[in-house]
Amino acid sequence: MLFLLPEGLAEWEILSAKTGLSRAELLQTLLQLKAEGFPVLVEERGAGLAPGSPAPQILFPLLRGKFGRAYRYFGFVTSTQDVLRAWQDAPIGAVVLAERQTRGRGRHGRAWESPPGNLYFSVLLGKDADPLLSLRAGLALLEAAKVGGLKWPNDLLAPDGRKLGGILVEAEGERIFLGIGINVHVPPLPTSAALAEFREVQRAQLLAHFLWALETWLREKKEDVLLAWKERNVTLGKKVVVRTGKEVFEGIALALGEEGELVIRTKTGVHRIYAGDVVLCATDDVKDPEVGEGEAEGGGSGHGQGKGPGPSAK
Ligand code: BTN
Q1: Mutational pocket test of ligand 1: of 78, 83, 120, the residue with most ligand atoms within 8 Å of the beta carbon
Q2: CATH of the domain at 151
Q3: Model confidence over 13-24: pLDDT tens digits?
Q4: What is the mean pLDDT of the chain?
Q5: Residues 282/239, Cβ–Cβ less than 8 Å
Q6: What is the atom index within ligand 1 of the atom nearest the CA of 110?
Q7: Cα separation of 124 and 250, whole Å?
Q8: Domain residues for 188?
């Protein structure tokens, strides 16, 4: 039934003809789908799916590549990462998406609040994913969002520094689960932003755009990925605090290394960070005597720098 619903409202008679159900039976089924978390519209004139819903019948005509053609769409799940992991024969590029997650997770063991109206999905990748995967995924996210900049390694920040989206990379053997959360219509926390504050956006289009951009960025040469990330980042040249789980570094983000690592200068020297969580400390680019003019690469110019979110912001 869900997959027979059109985008936007269709009159009751049309829906009855399409499904062979009476209006009363339709109503019961639609209310059930709504209770299961799907964005079903039920009105006096008719019923349908909210415009831009990422249901397969709306998403599939928008897909350009292979990713997303194997697709499972849910109302509620614990975490799309777990559902994808349990999908044993999923092909590379398979996507699991849910309207809501009851136990969505973020990086470093944090929870990922998942109210309805946003995008929560996971993409299956294979063993050929390289150390730059995080940066490639971030570039795809920014390309699809068309707003903001990237905080190392792949947080999407709005022009004012609030978080718009994040990426979680998990692996099991040769399977890689790339989990993406994008605040499309609803900022989950007071410190986060939603894309719809900045531009008109439809979720299915955004998802299709991301999947195509991901396929494209996964094929790009390493040098081009590093260069593109440097041009689009809002991290380099900033005062940062980086938490790796074991250590905390406070210093200036100097550069992006060849393997996508963040190079920072602290009071104790220069450190290369391969995995960690960055908090941007200053509004303005650093004018620190320890960092010579132009020493920091990139620096996110042109992204309308704002305050970095606090450590628990998402
Ligand atoms: C981050 O901490 O910035 C990464 C957040 C990743 C959240 C997404 S939502 C879809 C997928 N399922 C999860 O449980 N987490 C990721």
Answers
A1: 120
A2: 3.30.930.10
A3: 999 999 999 999
A4: 89
A5: yes
A6: 2
A7: 35
A8: 56-232
